Structures are given as structure tokens and as C-alpha cells.
Amino acid sequence: MPNDVLKSAGSVTGVVRLRPGHDSRTVFIILLGTTTFSIPTDSIGNFTLENLAEGEYRLRVLSTLDTYKPLDTVLSIQSGVQSRLRDTLRLIYKAPAGELPEIDEVNLEYDTTKISARLTWKKQDAALASAYFVYRKHEDSAFVRISDAPVKDTVFIDDWRSGIQPNEKYAYSVTVLDAKGNEGKKGLAVTLKAAVRYTIDTAISNSACSSGECKYDVDSIGNIYLAESDGTIVRYGHQGTISRWSYPEGGSMLFLRALVAEPSGSNIYVLDLKPLRVWELDSSGNKKWTSNTLSSDGGLNFSFEQSGDTLLVWEIDSRVMVYLDKNGNILKQETSFGVGTALFSTETGFYSPRENGVTLLDQSGHLIFDWALDNQAYPQGLTRDPAGRWYVCEGATPAVDVFSPEYVLIGSIPGTGYGALKYRSGALYLQHHMDTKTLKINVGF
């Protein structure tokens, strides 16, 4: 017979699993409609089906133990191919009469933006199951119950706020509670690796900054500027270079703004309090100009920002906004501007953090939106990316929450700490108030 008529046989290997402590060698793997079957070669459940013609087969898996339901599935065989089943075959356990059922089929959906796991399972007989408990284990630890109270529904949400750590591996299991409070055995576990859509780098760790005193900025090409507590300005270049210089004339530096004039270097604008004025320094730390003394009521609460080609000095206590050009000339001065708390610029106006929220203002200081935020005792920072997404540094937990342009929560970045936020060159920067370090967060939302 010609060689192109006869086709070589194919085969398939796989794994069939029972509950822990039950031997998988009690299982038969049968190809229905044929005389072919297999028995696992070890207690783990490894099996092989050989010498199979190309085609699709109905497969039945059953155990000699009467506590398991048969499993029916379909497999495809290709000529001359030794294939392997991608998924483990698991038989469903049937609790004997008088025992509480075990939850062996838990569905898990994971959201990489919210770092959130959604667990669902089938509702059990109400006569045997009045509620459920949910357990979680890290790959290096034992199971711990994470549902404080019995779960009446068949849905449970777990996220980073309740302990999921990015890029770690976890397993979940569910137990049944009857009406008397008796708890059944844990069912088969479902596993998860908590992948995320961002990476966190420690851009700078600088002990010269005492807690909360470092003022910083990042220019559009990723150079980081720190005004340290010892009166030194430090530029950490995006290519690894470090430059230092002392503040001119021994001024009392409070705020610093770094603005790119051209790709080869940046101008640095510093707000001095004594007297209240603005300095411009070149990329080598040399003074270029000093503005005239700005009017002030003598308070010490200021915000120093930049919007386009304009420098903004906001005197919080007196609610006076002073506008300067990039030559230090005062363009105008407005009184009764905005609200009486710290004011920071955005691409479209200003924002002012408040208890459990943020007040958004337009360029003229008029209210745009009063944004109520959950879990934000007092937001530490806010910025936007070019797509209009908002990033808010929480005040209640050390995290950054990500919102759509319509102010809808779409994700979280936990473990970042507290501090002012900047969005530059496709990345977030956060000056950690407590750990005296600057984080660079590469985001992929």
C-alpha cells in the first residue's frame, strides 16, 4: 500500500487527580467506542494512551471509589504526534451521606489593574450548607481564613487591601458551614499569581533628606531634582549622572520646580521665603535671575507650581495667586483665589486636597468638580497622564489609585507610600515622605 495512505499512530499523556490522600491508580481512563483504556502509572496520576488513529475521541474518566463522579470530555489525536493534555483532569468528590459537601470547583477571575481576585462557586444544598468560609495561603505558608464572617453568597472578592501582594503566588479554598455552625473540609484549591501592570523602581534613596522635608521635581526627560534639608540641590540624571550645588547666597529654600528648556539641560526655579522671591538657576546651578520680592502676609504656607510658561506662587493663608513669566516678571496677582488649602497645578487647572476628597478648579480658580474619594483620608498627591487618567496618592493607605478621565476607579498601585506625585516621560514619580526616597513607577494602564 502507498506510504501516503497509512498514517502513523498518535498518543497522548496527561494527569488525573483525586483529593489529597486518595490514590489516582483507582482511576480508569477509557476511550468510549474503542477497546482502549489506561490506568495511571503512579499515585500522582500520570497516564498515557498510545497507538491511536488520528481523530476525535470521547473520553470517560471514572474511579473505583464510589465517592467520585465520572468525568466526560473530548480529546483530539493527530497522526504521528505525541501530545500532552494541557489541563489536569480532576474528578469531582461526592461527600458520603452525613458529611458536609466539599467545594472542589472554585472559579477564579483575576484583575491585573485592581490586583483583585473574584472567587465564585456553585451553591450547595441549603439543607447542608447555610454559608461558606474562604481561605487563602501564600505559597510559603499555611491556609488562613480571610472571610471574617460567614459568606452567605457564592461570590467573594479578595484584593491587595486584604493582603494580596503583587507578583506573589496564592491558593484559595472554600469550606461549607451548616446551620449549626459545623464546618466541612477544605475543597480543592485554586491557584493564582498576582500579576500587575506596573513595576516600581527606587530611583533615589537619600538619607540627607530628613523625613518629609525634601522638595523635588522631575523634568520631561526623567532627570530628578531634590532640594535637600542641608541646603543642597541635587540632580539625578536619567542616565545615571549626579550633580550637586549649594543654594545661592545661602537662601532659605522651601520649594523647587524643575523645567526643561531644551533636551540638553534644564532650568531650575526655586522659591525662597526670606524674602519671598523666585530664583532661576541654570543646569550647572548658577543663578540667572532673581524676581522682585513678592507680597506676602508673613505666612509660611505656600505652593509653588508651573503651568505652561507661567510660574505660580500660591500664598495659602491669604489666598493670593501671583503669576510670573520665565524671566521673573510679575504678570498679575489675584486675591481670594481658590480655596484656603494647598493648591497644585494640573494640565487643565488646579486641585486642592481635602478630607476624603479633592477639589478641582479651572485656570481662574473656579470650581469644576468636588471629587469625593473613598479610602482617602487626606490625598497626598494627584497628577494626570496624557490620556487623561488620574493618579491619586492615598492618605489612608500607602498606595496610588488610578482613575479614568471620568473619575471612575480602574486600578491600584499598592506599596508605594505617601507623597507628591509627578507624571513625566511615561512614568509616575513619588517622593516618599517617610522613607526619604523617590520611586519611579512604570505604569501600563
What does this structure look like?
This protein has 445 residues and is mainly beta. It has three domains: 10-90, Sandwich (Immunoglobulin-like); 106-193, Immunoglobulin-like; 198-443, Neuraminidase (6 Propeller), CATH 2.120.10.30. 0% of the residues lie in helices and 48% in strands. The protein has strands spanning 10-17, 27-31, 37-38, 46-52, 55-63, 71-77, 82-84, 89-90, 106-111, 116-121, 131-138, 144-145, 155-159, 169-177, 190-193, 198-205, 215-218, 224-227, 232-236, 242-246, 253-262, 265-272, 277-281, 287-290, 302-307, 310-315, 320-324, 330-334, 344-345, 350-354, 357-361, 367-372, 381-384, 390-393, 399-403, 409-414, 421-424, 427-432, 437-443. The mean pLDDT is 82.
Short description:
With 445 residues, the protein is mainly beta.
CATH class of the largest domain: Mainly Beta
Give the end-to-end Cα distance, rounded to a whole number of Å: 61 Å
Number of strands: 39
Specify Rg, calculated over alpha carbons.
Answer: 32 Å
* Global shape: elongated
The stretches of 5 or more residues where confidence is low (pLDDT under 50) are: none
Assembly state (oligomeric): single chain
Number of domains: 3
Write down the overall mean pLDDT.
Answer: 82
CATH superfamily of the largest domain, please?
TolB, C-terminal domain
CATH topology of the largest domain: Neuraminidase
Report the helical percentage: under 10%
Given helix and strand content, the structural type is mainly beta
Please indicate the percent range of residues in DSSP E strands (runs of 2 or more). over 45%
Main sheet: strands, sense, barrel = 4 strands, mixed
- Quickly count the helices: 0
CATH architecture of the largest domain: 6 Propeller
